Amino acid sequence: MKTFFKNIGNTIVKKLRKHPLICNFVLSVVLAFVLEVLGRQTFDLSAVGFVDQRSKMFLYSIFIIFVTYSVTLITKRRLFSYIIVTLLWSIVGIVNFMMLSSRNTPFTYVDITLMKSVLPVMNNYFSPLEIGAMGALLLIALVLLVVAYMYLPIEEHLNRKSGFIKVIVIIAVFSGVTSYGFKSGMLVDQIHNIRIAFSDYGTPYCFSITALKNGIDKPSDYSEKKIKKIEKRTQKKVAKMKKEKVKKPNIIFVQLESHFDITQVKGVKFNKDPLPNFHKYMKGYSSGQLSMPSYGAGTANSEFELITGMNLDHFGAAEYPYKTVLQNTTTESMATVLKNYGYKAHAIHDNSAAFYDRDLVFSQLGFDTFTTKESMNIKKWTENGWAKDQILTGCIMDSLDSTKGQDYVYCISVQGHGDYPTTQIIENPEITVEGIEDEALKNKYTYYVNQVYQMDQFVGKLVKALEQRGEPTILCMYGDHLPSLEIEDEDLTYGNKYQTSYFMWDNIGLKKKDGTIEAYNLGSEVLNKCNIHTGLMNSFHQTRKGTKNYQKDMKELQYDMLYGKQYVWNQENPFKATDLQFGIRPLTVTKVYETKDSIFIVGNNFTNFCQVFDGDVKINTTYHNEHLLEVSKKDLKDGDTFKVSIVSKALRVLSSSNEYVYQEKSEK
User: Main subcellular localization, coarse class (predicted)?
Assistant: First the structure.
């Protein structure tokens, strides 16, 4: 038996060495299919369906992998090269499978660039045993690679000239096929939903395009002269605009998770209007459709366009600027523009501070405060574990109360977040669904529509609270993207699946004006109503929208601001990252008292993310309510100075209380 397997092994090795092109093709086919199976997280026939229905894309995936195997034609360590290429593609497939399982988002090249920031928080996603197992596997793999490098046979009579010719021919043919693919529409370099793209175009292509196309391509005519020409044209048009007194109302943007007008889906009926408040304010105030950069996912990219006024179409495929350029670059935003008029800028999100690195990015965008789930006492959650948006009304009011002047608030909701359950998990739903025969899809719709119905109640309560407050205010409310409910353009009675509904409520007498607006234009529309015409992107949109070379010049500006020489600012970025304050209400410790085994800490604004620290030592802490925490008596000694801190999932201390000296039995 041993001899039998040895003979098979020797035969395979001989074939690999003697017929590399055939072996490259066979391995490419096998790997391409395995990657699709892993990417679909299922071992049913869905991967076969991709091969059958998207045969051209599957062949292109094979070609991509085949090109990477071409290295075996020009290296003496041919067998070792086979192992390396196969291992790298296998890692892509396995990591993609794991990431889809843990975060519902595929593995892209950007994730590799963020590896440094991921390593410190791995223990939040994996147990010590799992981390240890991964470390052991990596060590074993490295040892095996070293052994393979040392002992696998070398091609002594390699015809490198012939090999290079073959590689050149392969690359030339691949380039031609790729060029044809883009011209024919088979391939795309703009991806609006990365998960759908992985399903439609395959893992090899999507991973490769995110590696090769990121950032903003340098415009062919980029120069200081060109940028100054764009600026001059904009400023000339600004100078001709009617001069009116600047209005300074509170400006509030509320981005509703996966929200759209679900009553506009053809054939789907509900027992009552699930969006009575949203419909009411759309009818009474400026409203319409908002064209978003993505479908089914991509909340952070919707934010990016609305906050910066930049068009994501000019960036790389499936790029998240929050994860790339804004990791180390500050830039102009609606926050920085309004702060020049005395505003304070607040961000609010009832999810984790570290999600999409917002705890860093909002500092880069000029926000002053950021209130997140960690700073909130959330008492109501969806059946899927997301915070209910009713908590946000109080958070917005706290932000407005925190200053005497005007405020800019950007609030991001989370209640409508997917995935949506295929089984019925809501007992006696308020909203019932008719017109959908597929039971699983009907259950998804039922769950979703009941979440947006509750979100609509939040909409009504927020407007009512602002009316009662009486301060001059403009409130924009809209969905960040459509939900992942298998909705296509033909299923809608309006526009397309990249458009969500919006309204612009105000109490300053603005004239109603309806229409479809690009997400990156909404901020400039609001500022125009306030007679604010400053800021590079704001003034550009207000004066150049719809004109010749609008998109071309916009790309020039975006490139210059984020990747170029920054000629718009005389080559010196004027924006500094802010010292972001997390939460509005301060943590305070007022007293302690003790029992036989425990010390109870009394104070204000505690949350279940609070941890007691004795110096730099974190103490195991039990949260009771917003005024009471408990630690073990053995963890604090007489005379110890401690503080209470809110700690994010990324193990970052977001905010801390005053220091307090524990005196044993000082309170009874």
Answer: membrane
pLDDT at res. 126: 61
Determine the pLDDT at residue 200.
85
CA 659 to chain centre: 36
Rounded CA gap, 611 and 587, in Å? 12
Cβ atoms within 10 Å of 242's Cβ, excluding its own: 5
In whole angstroms, give the CA distance from residue 181 to residue 202: 14
Helix (H, G, I), strand (E, B) or coil at 85: helix
Distance (Å, whole) CA 371 – CA 271: 36
Q: What pTM, to 2 d.p., does this model score?
A: 0.86
Measured CA to CA, the distance from residue 397 to residue 578 in angstroms comes to 22
Tokens found for residue 231: 């600026």
What pLDDT, on a 0 to 100 scale, did the predictor assign at position 9?
A: 60
Whether the predicted pLDDT of 39 surpasses 80: yes
Rounded to whole angstroms, the Cα distance separating 510 from 474 reads 9
505 close to 477: Cβ distance less than 8 angstroms: yes
Least confident range of 399-403, 593-597, 608-612, 650-654: 650-654
Is residue 249 scored above 80 in pLDDT?
yes
Residue 471, token pair as written in the block = 């301060």
Q: Strand 250-256 relative to strand 407-412: parallel, antiparallel, unpaired?
A: parallel
Mean predicted confidence (pLDDT) in 169-175: 94
Mean pLDDT over residues 623-636, rounded? 96
Q: Which of 23-32, 367-376, 512-521 has the lowest mean pLDDT?
A: 23-32
Element (H, E) at 446: helix 439-469
Listed in sequence order, the residues at least 6 apart from 176 whose beta carbon sits closer than 8 Å to its beta carbon are none
The C-alpha atoms of residue 473 and residue 509 are separated, in whole angstroms, by 10
Query: Are 459 and 277 within 8 A, CB to CB?
Result: yes
CA 532 to chain centre: 30
Task: Compute the Cα dihedral for 355, 358, 359, 361 and give only its sign.
Answer: positive
* 3-state SS, one letter per residue, for 396-445: HHHHHHCCCCCEEEEEECCCCCCCCCCCCCCCCCCCCEECCCCHHHHHHH
How is residue 374 annotated by DSSP?
G
* pLDDT tens-digit series, residues 544-581: 999 999 999 999 999 999 999 999 999 999 999 999 99
- State residue 3's pLDDT score: 66
Sequential DSSP letters for 257-299: TT---GGGBTT-EESS-S-HHHHHHHHHSEEEEEE-S-SSS-H
pLDDT of 457-489, one tens digit each?
A: 999 999 999 999 999 999 999 999 999 898 999
CB-based contact 482:290 (threshold 8 Å): no
Q: In this structure, how many other beta carbons lie within 10 angstroms of the beta carbon of residue 472?
A: 15
Percent of the chain with pLDDT over 90: 70
All structural domains of the chain: 2-212 (no CATH), 224-569 (3.40.720.10), 586-661 (2.60.40.10)
Instruction: For residue range 586-613, list pLDDT tens digits in order.
Output: 999 999 999 989 999 999 999 999 999 9
Report whether the peptide linkage leading into residue 419 is cis, meaning its omega lies within 30 degrees of zero.
Answer: yes
CA distance linking residue 522 with residue 503, whole number of Å: 11
Query: How confident is the model at residue 113, as a pLDDT?
Result: 67
Q: Which own/partner contact pairs does 439-447 have at CB distance under 8 Å and 24+ positions apart?
A: 441/485, 441/486, 444/420, 444/485, 445/262, 445/268, 445/420, 445/485, 447/383, 447/384, 447/420, 447/421
Distance CA 178, CA 625 (A): 60
Residue 303 structure tokens: 């934010």
* Chain centroid to CA 197: 16
